[in-house]
Amino acid sequence: MNRIEALFALQPSGNLNVYFTAGFPQVGDTRRVLSALQESGADLVEIGMPYSDPVADGETIQLSNQQALENGMTVRLLLEQLEEMREDGITMPVLLMGYVNPVIQFGIERFCQKCAEVGVDGLILPDMPMDVYLNEYKTIFEKHGLLNIFLVTPQTSEARIRQIDEMSTGFIYTVSSASVTGSQSGVSDNMEAYFDRIDAMQLRNPRLIGFGIKDNATFEKACNYAQGAIIGSAFIRVLQGSQDITADVHDFIHSVKANNHEGIGV
Asked: Are 101 and 75 in contact (CB under 8 A)?
């Protein structure tokens, strides 16, 4: 069983997924941040692959992408940094998130093979069309044991959501709004109606809510409508001003999960 599937089987609610950009704030910080997240109780992690034009992301994540690229971060270097992470004690699910163009440039088959070798569990490539995935890449992903995570938004039709649910394993990334990352201040009434609509569909896959989750209050509220939530921009801001990454990561994750459990190892 993939680590992502195992996590939701063991822990069906209250899961905290944290996004951070590889090679930020410094190029060598990727493993330090990853270890600190596991130690502090994050349940799964998305590591962003820096890209020069991250159009779906807000200013905070855009700037972290720019800084990481200036630091010299590449897809190749990220995969090198993740070598032996499993041997070194990283047990939580790890996903890579980014845009499809750098992956295609690296080579889809080679990329997936390397992800499997270092212990990556899944990919989130929001700009990869579903038809392209199904017709060209699905068999490659499955060959290497990688889950492909799809996103749904308030504008996604019920038919499309059901199609995504049918072809997905792991979880569905439930985007809270049509805006970019980091632009929302919480869960609005309109979002609640959207979450209720999806909940009524009784999908077979777990859901994690992303965009607008920044603290304990927004995390707890999102967990009322899904099996967990995703924090990105708020965490990047913690790293941005950090003088002690390990301590600051611990403080932030503990504050977000103040009324929740500590993370479990899978």
From this structure: no
pLDDT for 264:
47
| Bridge partners (DSSP) listed for residue 62 | none
Tally the C-alpha atoms within 13 A of residue 148's C-alpha that lie toward its C-beta. Answer: 27
Regions of the chain short of the pLDDT cut 50: 179-183, 262-266
User: What pLDDT, on the 0 to 100 scale, is given for residue 55?
Assistant: 65
Question: Rounded to whole angstroms, how far apart are CA atoms 73 and 244?
Answer: 21
- Best CA proximity match to 39, nearest among 246, 232, 238: 246
- Kindly list the catalytic residues: 46, 57
Q: Among all chains, which residue has been given the structure tokens 């579903």? A: 130
Claim: this prediction has a pTM higher than 0.90: yes
Give me the residue label for tokens 């944290």.
18
CA distance 251 to 176: 26
Residue 260: what pLDDT?
A: 63
User: Residue 144 burial by CB count (10 A; 0-12/13-18/19+): exposed, middle or buried?
Assistant: middle
